[in-house]
Amino acid sequence: MNQRNTRTENRKYPRIERRIPFKLKADDFVVVTQTIDLSCIGVSCQVKESIPFMTRVKVFFALPCPDKKSESVCIECYGVVVRVEEVLSKSRASTGIYNIAIFFDEIEDIEREKLSDYIRKMV
Questions:
Q1: Distance CA 115, CA 41 (A)
Q2: Deepest in the core among 46, 78, 104, 121, taking most CB within 10 A?
Q3: How do the pLDDT tens digits run along the chain, 123 residues long?
């Protein structure tokens, strides 16, 4: 009987679990938050207000240089909120905090390449 390692992920694109500040902008709001995890196709983070599922957002990153000898790497792209989960307290009460995931549905090849290079260096 083969047992599968439940911690191994079969993802096409690697992701990193890092806290990197970034900004989300839509027609009616701007949110500054931090990544929970990041890949070249999307990001997950926490926000203090619910952002509706399928909301289109502009995403701005200034990725810190891993060797700290260069300037940060700026990336801009568009994405869609594909997951919204309210974070509940231990007593199951609302905390007013939401975990969201954003899929980058419009990202220039050069921007995706910069993001992919950054992630490769951080893995």
A1: 9
A2: 104
A3: 444 444 445 567 788 999 999 999 999 999 999 999 999 999 999 999 999 999 999 999 999 876 667 788 899 999 999 999 999 988 888 889 999 999 999 999 999 999 999 999 887
